[in-house]
Amino acid sequence: MTAPRSIQVVAGVITDPRGRILLTRRKEDSELAGLWEFPGGKIEPGESPEQALRRELLEEVGLEVEVGTPVIRVPQLYPSKRLTLDVRHVTVRSGHARGCEGQALTWVAPEKLRQYSMPHADLPVVAALTQPAEYAITPDIDAPFDEIAIERWVVRALALCAVPGRRVQLRSPQAPRDRFALAIERLLERLGSQQVQLLVNRDTELAAQFGLGLHWCAVQLHQATERPSISSQQPLAVSCHHLADLERAQSLQCDFAVLSPVLATQTHPTATPLGWDGFAGLREHVSLPLYALGGLQPDDLVTARYHGAQGIAGIRGFAGEWD
Length: 323
Ligand SMILES: Nc1nc2c([nH]c(=O)n2[C@H]2C[C@H](O)[C@@H](COP(=O)(O)OP(=O)(O)OP(=O)(O)O)O2)c(=O)[nH]1
Hints:
This protein is an alpha/beta fold. The protein has 2 domains: about 5-115, Nucleoside Triphosphate Pyrophosphohydrolase; about 135-320, TIM Barrel (Alpha-Beta Barrel), CATH 3.20.20. About 30% of the residues lie in helices and about 25% in strands. The chain is elongated.
């Protein structure tokens, strides 16, 4: 079998004064015809990504732009090629967007991007633009799981929830179920109307009881035949370690996955780390949003995004708020 050809593509996120993002539609005679995409194109030999993006946006949509910060770089395997989609924020210097090659274009509010049919590589881009970049995981409730331990856990969880732009997984595998339930109840009372997306580790009934999201372990993922009965408004996430986990998570329409361990970690000392290249090598097979986990700190986000993760997850790396 011959290796698929590799192409490097660069695309821009162009935002209008109302915060809407420009999408263009792939023409009928092209591969992936009719799908909506971020304007851009292939990097020509000898060009830097920035030069290529400036050229493409002038040719395609008639805009002179300044290329800004990276959004995400997505490795994606298509049937006929191996693509790397490097997406940057751009600022328009002059011009009005028009389809210079006869292609349709539209301005879309970020929360509506998911309603548009896009190539697989674009789904992690949409996630990076619209979903939290951090997924913090609570530590265990300390033994003996008494009132003092529950109060300490609630205070720690509140500190994790107080950082804007996060999802938080409520996890305490050591605690008896009734003590974990009590701790969640206390946390929800104290959170009041504070907006934070919460997921319960493994326990479908508790997730349903409290109206929260659910985070499966890989074993639960492989045992399940369908999406569990939690609120359809709440996310379903899963811990993945291998390609088979990721493919199953995608086929069961999990909302996102956590892929680990990326680096060596104290919590799983015997597991072989994937390394960032290993992470990207698995990411190219699926298009669901992925958080990287294992030995990471919040300031690893730029590296994570460069390897196709839409965010980073962690227990210890996020503990600075209370330790
Ligand atoms: N510009 C752009 N291309 C994208 C996006 N998502 C995505 O998968 N692609 C793919 C589609 C194409 O295979 C490739 C862009 O190449 P292109 O637009 O310059 O030209 P093309 O259709 O002739 O590509 P190809 O068949 O030669 O691979 O990247 C995106 O958001 N923007």
